[in-house]
Amino acid sequence: MVQRKRLIGRRSDSDARADHGPWQDASGFPLGQFKEGVIMDVATTRFGTVQVDDNRVLEFAGGLLGFSSFTRFVLLQPDPEGIFLWLQSIVSPELAFVVTDPSHWCQDFEAVVRREHLAQLDLSSVEEARMLVIVNKYDDALTANLQGPLVVNIRNQRGMQVVLADRRWTTRREIAKLVEEKQLVSA
Fold first, then answer.
1. How far apart are CA 19 and CA 163, in angstroms?
2. What is the tens place of the pLDDT at every residue in 97-144?
């Protein structure tokens, strides 16, 4: 008998096929408009070595919380129809985070980002940014860190993880349940 985990999510009905807007390019990666750059190899523990245009590198000058020395990442989308992405470090193959657009799971999500943070990213308003949240497995559920979203300027590829003071958002907002499926396997 093989046991698998299946996802039961709370994705909003209007997101049957997510429109990534300016982040969806011809190759299926949900990124911005890029100039053609140099192809680089990025080693990953999940997908082997992948080739990525160096113009796709996202720069998090302060790193991510708990990972301040890792500042350069790429977004990988193994499933063009999927809503989960991998934020992969370009220098550490084992460092990668599952991320997603919070609006898929929480339609009323809004982040109040301080002016100095917007200025560091060269943004006039938070509406110009792309928001992503880190996803974690907690017990039998997937949770999203809505209190520490990633704010990315898609024009200059600079990003920052911010900590929101708004108590409505938690670090463990349940977005999906994992349930076991039992399947008989013939001998």
1. 26
2. 999 999 888 888 888 889 999 999 999 888 888 999 999 998 888 999
CB 8 within 8 A of CB 180: no
Tokens of 1: 């008998």
Question: What is the C-alpha to C-alpha distance for residues 98 and 113, in angstroms, rounded to an integer?
Answer: 22
d(CA 105, CA 86): 17
Structure tokens at 84: 């989960």
Give the single-character DSSP code of 113.
Answer: -
- Confirm if 172 and 135 have CB atoms less than 8 A apart: no
Is 47 in a helix, a strand, or coil?
A: coil
Bridge partner residues of 85 (DSSP): 99
115, 151 in Cβ contact below 8 A?
Answer: no
DSSP 118: H
Domains of the chain by start residue, with CATH:
2-183 (2.30.290.10)
